[in-house]
Amino acid sequence: MTTPATPTRARPAAPVQRPNAVGVTTTRIDGIPKVKGEFEFSSDMRMDGMLWGATLRSPHPRADIWAIDIAPALAIPGVHAVLTHEDVPGRKVYGMEIPDQPVLAWDHVRYQGEAIAIVAADHPETARRAVAAIQVDFEVLEPLADAEAAMAPDAPRLHLSGNVLRHVRINHGDPEATADVVVTGEYEVGMQDQAFLGPESGLAVPDGEGGVDLYIATQWLHVDRDQLAESLDLPPEKVRLELGGVGGAFGGREDLSMQIHACMLALHTNRPVKIVYNREESFFGHVHRHPCRMRYEHGAGRDGRLVYVRARVVLDGGAYASSSTAVCSNAACFAAGPYEVPNARLDAYVTYTNNPPCGAMRGFGSVQVAIGHEAQMDKLAAALGIDPVELRIMNAMRPGSRMPTGQVVREPAPVVELLERLRAMPLPPAATGDGHDPRELPGGVSNTTRGESVRRGVGYGLGFKNVGFSEGFDDYSTARVRLSLDGGEPLVEVHTAAAEVGQGVITVQAQIAHTELGVERVAVLAADTRVGSAGSSSASRQTYVTGGAVKAACEAVRERLEALAEERGAPATPAAVLGEGEAIEETVEWHHRETFPLDADGQGDAHMQFAFSAHRAVVDVDTELGLVRVVELATTQEVGRAMNPQALLGQIEGGTAQGLGLALLEEIQVAEGKVLNASFTDYLLPTILDMPPMRIELLEHADPEAPYGLKGVGEPPNISTPPAVAAALRAATGRELPRLPVRPEHLVGLDPGPSRASRGPTAGSGR
Amino acid sequence: MPGYNRAPVSAELTIAASAQGRESPQAQIDALRAAAGASGLAHESGPTSTLLAGGRAEVLEATCQAIEAALDAGARSVDVRVEATEDADRFGTLS
User: Fold this and answer.
1) Can you tell me the ipTM of this complex?
2) Bridge partners of A489?
3) CB spacing of B37 vs A161 below 8 angstroms
4) Who wins on pLDDT, A97 or A656?
5) Would you list the DSSP string of A6-56?
6) Is the distance from CB of A57 to CB of A113 less than 8 angstroms?
7) How far is B36 from chain A (nearest CA, A)?
8) Could you tell me if B39 lies within 8 Å of chain A, comparing CB atoms?
């Protein structure tokens, strides 16, 4: 391969796979090593002579800094460097879209956990002691901890240009339209964490010539590199990144965390420097899902047809911008859901506060508003006396429907089919008699009920979101493909910068190469910046865009092979055309179709592709204890083409689990800007015991513009699960439950009602 | 300018505040920041630096206003570094 050698860390040869073709399940090459504990995650990396980095963080959500004294830390034996903002060689702020976040704080801190100083020492404990020895003179200020309050004219300005980071207004049809039947609702969603199991970690290695190599768990190598080069004041070619083993991402690794810090320390000490956050620090080291407040008004005719939707959505962006502007746009664009809505006014705001910074997380923007628009559809169905699923079907978006942004949904949009197939799935049987298996009751064997106050509910939810980057961003990926003979056998090598974050993009690249070139043996090289950008492993885009790039590069290789075969009068097979040591190599930059910015009325073809999914949740609620057991989750999803069916099911199950977590368990508790539960003891994640059996049906209506007809699949399950669980809880309890996650205290204190043995699905079930 | 969806043009203004100025050095920095902040485009980018990011015309206009405010407050020197993204309108004509 015509790529320069990485100078600082030997890498193993890329393993050779024998993948199946596209559409046939292929076992992930990283799966078995991960299960056996043999996979090298970024936190496992080591080098001889490396130092350990650590970070001093603000204990205050808002404060002025009057002085920083690093002398006590420098005096500790084993400490090699203590750096502050004065040591940042280049730009002192970074950010993917808006460079507003200090690499290291100078005069102010704007959130609890903001980085102030960094240390390199010969042992991690020494580094931690040095961090503790740094003295900072703070003047603590009252935090601005509420997104609505941040918009008040007299609110303190957290940034020079004010606290409203973005406001998107969509005016569609007659925004002031009136209707016969009107329902309103206010909803709130808490701050969810990505809760990836592999904490932030990386290893920076100076190359001895002023440059640096960084081995890092991230989602987008090239945007990391560009921000690093800017703050390190180095040309991009002097900053080389290679993907370390990523232990989950979900948007939380799209921003920088310790990347600049590790490189600064490595260049300063001329030693390799490793930084690994512990679990508590990880909660402060990455952005989270935006907490959100929504006010909705839906108007419909008495026949159930939607007349208008009005929504006001306020997202708390926290201290720095991250990707908040894109989240805000999605919240506005998808606020009305996958329905035909002739009139709408949709306002979304995102503001700065002194809360933890929020940014990308699986389903960004769409997750929050789906909780609102789906609750509204259930409320409207109740007001009209129409079955909630029937109401959704009546108003469902279809191919050719126009979104409130004016964009026509061009590709298959089988919302009706999703709902009808979901509704047709059998419901789990209601438990009967008094011989309950205690493991099947809410709370499991540790519960104290015998089932006498347990109620069942069934609810439905739809999810709707864009795939890929929108609003005019030139979204592309680069693939280099090389075909050669290796020991007499054809071998395809695929090189991209696509970050494998657990979604299976390595495997799907191999499948595509095998499918296009008909070669059994495929090696996918390590993702790094020696090849062009692949864009981010986010927005459900990587299989679409990098898959498209690999396909195009393979086609270019195949054309050259065929031309060579004709020239040499040989069959167009690698073994017949190529000699040992001979190779065909092509690099292709592949762009998806153009998108456009939204105008002042929120109108424009802003999105490239749309994803749809539906969930049905069946829950049992112990109304005395407030405990919930999710009995079953069923889902239908439009996937275009199931590229690797087993991996796709994994995405759906994982996304559903994360959605269940948001509905019932997962929230970063923040009070006056301070995080109260920065641990997996107090931040509750669903485990295998919380996940019910799933029924999954895939729809494969090909998108004619997409490679293989595929659709992005990672995010939709995360969008349609929370509203379905919330609807099931409302059906079981009759309560409004306007806030997610729903907590036990929201569910207790109901009338005893009928016993568990005598009840079936309740009103609102759609059956 | 690197990054995802960065603004087309940025200008980083670094003030060398003068102790001989009409206002105190910090007041000179504050004057520049207040003027920059009013444009809706500004963020702090260092103890004495301010970053303006947006469309070309608005950034250049705001840059002039911020420099004027600093000079009015007695600043003697403002360093300006203007950068454009690859796909930004070039510096031919002001739109």
Assistant:
1) 0.90
2) A486
3) yes
4) A656
5) PSSS--PPPPEE-PPPTTS----TTHHHHHHT-S--GGG---TT-EEEEEE
6) yes
7) 8
8) yes
